[in-house]
Amino acid sequence: MAEGGEGDSGLIVASVPEGQRKLMCIQYPGFVDNVDRAINSLGGMKSIEKVYYEKTHVLEARLRPEDRFCKPVVGRSLPVTNLLLALVSYYFTNGPWKMLWVRLGYDPRSTPDSKRYQCLDYRLPREIAAVSTLEARRSKLRKGLIYAGSKKQDEFQLSGDSVQLAEAVADSNAPETEACPVFIAHQLPTQRQVYYQLCDLRDESLQTLLHANDGREDECSEANGWCEEGVYDQLRKMLGEMVRRTAERVEEERDWLLQTIPAQARD
């Protein structure tokens, strides 16, 4: 059985079993003073469960079911991720841990070990951001190259060297599947503005700079957290140099690829 409960601001929270209990949230167009009556006005728990399993199903809240002239109000389901996070964590809006959720009871400003969780705002220079757009165009060319066993083979014939080149370029630039942004020296950032946690800067020289003051963190500052003053600027400079070298390599590979691909493959 699913269970209902009263939430704030006219929200009805219901958990629906599907292997394990899950939470869903329904926006109710009014103040909820009686949970059972509010659920009944939505058509009961079966109707709410239908919204959970069928995303196209629309809830109709009949606020006065006994009045046939009272038209129903449409309710909608809401994402509950932030609702759940707010129960177990709090959110930083600025400072070294900006845009991060932190577990309740844990204060990163009191523990030097939390330095690795600090956030770095990095923005691609304009000239390099233009190269990132070329990556998308090149991926389209790679897709045409590796289109094996399709009607495109009737339009043009590729040499074995061309296919091997395309596969090598694709393998060398294929981004890793990550739940959060991760900096890897030989890959371009996926966005023009990226928020990296310091632990996700996967380069030995960057990590050496970060941990240069390990054991000597005297205080947590509002601007730099547990890092030494000026470290953030040095990190951005080093990131910029690495990204620039990667962008130059990407352009060289692109030019090489364009020279190898037959003209009709680029159309």
TrEMBL record:
One of its GO terms (cellular component) is transcription factor TFIIIC complex. Coiled coil: none annotated. InterPro entries: TF_IIIC_Tfc1/Sfc1, Tfc1/Sfc1_N, TFIIIC_tauA_Sfc1. GO terms for molecular function: RNA polymerase III type 1 promoter sequence-specific DNA binding; RNA polymerase III type 2 promoter sequence-specific DNA binding. One of its GO terms (biological process) is transcription initiation at RNA polymerase III promoter. Residues 24-87 form the Transcription factor IIIC subunit Tfc1/Sfc1 triple barrel domain. This is General transcription factor 3C polypeptide 5. It comes from Geodia barretti.
